[in-house]
Amino acid sequence: MEIGIIGTGNIGSTLAGYLTKLSHQVAIANSRGPDTLIEIATKTGANPVSVEAAASAKDLVVISIPQNALAKLPRDILSISKAIILDTGNYYPSRDGKITEIENGLTDSEWTTKVIGHSVIKAFNHIGAQSLAEKALSAGNSNRIALSVAGNDDEQKEVVMKLIDEIGFDAIDGGSLSESWRQQAGEASYAQDVDKETLKAALQKADISKRAENLATADEMARPYFLKNN
Hints:
11 helices
């Protein structure tokens, strides 16, 4: 597949390494330009390009940036894209500022869909970067971690679930994009490194009435990291 990855933090760069090893044609981009990506490109084997070039990938575009940076993406390219657009992000008010539509009930990825003008598939947002980098296992291993994939297009979800399996994790269908709050920051499924059945149970027991409270707790825990790294 021809894949573009926008965002070269821990998640984006780790995915770049996995996907190039699977023989996909991978381009990586960040807001600072391809000249700043030489080290990551050398490490992962991905091709450093502009954000516009990564957004133009024909099969899959991975968006792995903070919510507060989404408005700077090339909407004119993304909104007409025929590619699967995969959102790995999470909303943290202490980093992203208050986003009224999310606070009023939209899921993170429903809001992302509005910003870029294209529906997305939600995945890789509820696993920690270190676990993603270090805990991939071959198919059939009983210790495999499961990841949830949410979205409104079943065929696109199947493609992403297959990629997850090839990378080294089990995948489950997390339902529609409106249900993707179940795998957002602060919920029982978040950063737990569990198997398929345990993950399914965690998603199902999520209580929407506690969504705001759970996000606030997760945001408070993450705040020191954001202060240190911004």
